[in-house]
């Protein structure tokens, strides 16, 4: 029997996760589900945001379904929340060797009117897949604060070796091939040496994928283009820090952070699946959070970790149908739509499966 490690975490994590697990139950696929603590929830019990018990659980599972971690900003200096996101998420990525992160940004047709962009900018639709390198760059180089000549100084080292870049670039090309054969590699090669190496390696690998057109774009230009003309993009591959920023910009296009799932993979194909949004403590435990991103993360898990394409599509279609029926959680609600709770929205999805 395949085992799924479920890490619900903090804030809205547990409530949207329990909705995703209702959907999983309804599909009756016979997985073994085991829960582990992470983030502030883990700190309460273990005084650690990522305890060994949770690491063991993940390493002995076939996939990880992750919720969200982190507490209210006003409490961020309390030990329970101090560096909670970095301690849990970055340690988890390292422990599971999750090299790449796939972040889709797609528009649901029935939600076009809630996108912050003007209709004429998105009438051609938006369907972007961002591949973000996840274990290198300025995130994992040395971080330091010190005094020099009486001044406070800080440095963060951005470092890439060619193997890290190759993994991400290959994932970019493979993803583009499964989509529209259009890959944009995003860097800052006019300034940074890590980017120059990135671009060189992308150009070296390109001939292995003759079907795919490779284009390079500077990250500042990309940030502008993704707002001005999102339809031009299909697949984007980029470094850790740029991917963090560009994917947040792209995730604003659908109109709510509660809509977007994401998937992270090791070189061996082990997968962790999580909503792109955060723990949203301000709306936790009110039965108003949008469970869509968590339920779509479940669909990605079925698709990529368990090759259950039919069931993944079943979930995605049920969500589209639920939206077409006018059901809306508060974050995506407008005028004449039917405002429903987290649980009722999920019930409608399950009825539409
Ligand atoms: C993300 C988050 C994390 C990141 C933080 C919480 C460490 O912003 O998953 O995008 O920067 O990678
Ligand atoms: Mn981020």
Written description of the protein model:
Helix 11 packs across helix 12 (342-352). The chain has 12 helices and 14 strands. It has helices spanning 13-27, 40-46, 52-59, 84-95, 119-122, 162-177, 193-205, 219-228, 240-251, 292-304, 309-324, 342-352; strands at residues 3-9, 32-35, 63-68, 98-106, 127-133, 143-148, 151-156, 182-187, 213-218, 235-238, 261-266, 271-275, 327-328, 338-339. The model has no long low-confidence stretch (mean pLDDT 96). The strands form 3 sheets. A 10-stranded mixed β-sheet has the order 2-1-3-12-11-4-5-10-8-9, sandwiched between helices. Strands 6-7 form a two-stranded antiparallel ribbon. Strand 11 (261-266) and strand 12 (271-275) form a beta hairpin. The chain folds into 2 domains: 1-98 and 260-353, 3-Layer(aba) Sandwich (Isopropylmalate Dehydrogenase), CATH 3.40.718; 116-253, Isopropylmalate Dehydrogenase (3-Layer(aba) Sandwich). The radius of gyration is 20 Å and the shape is globular. It starts with a strand and ends with a helix. With 353 residues, the protein is of the alpha/beta class. It binds 3-isopropylmalic acid and manganese (II) ion. Manganese (II) ion (MN) is lined by residues 244, 248.
Highlighted features:
353 residues, alpha/beta, Isopropylmalate Dehydrogenase, 2 domains, 10-stranded mixed beta sheet, two-stranded antiparallel sheet, 12 helices, 14 strands, 22% strand, globular, binds 3-isopropylmalic acid, binds manganese (II) ion
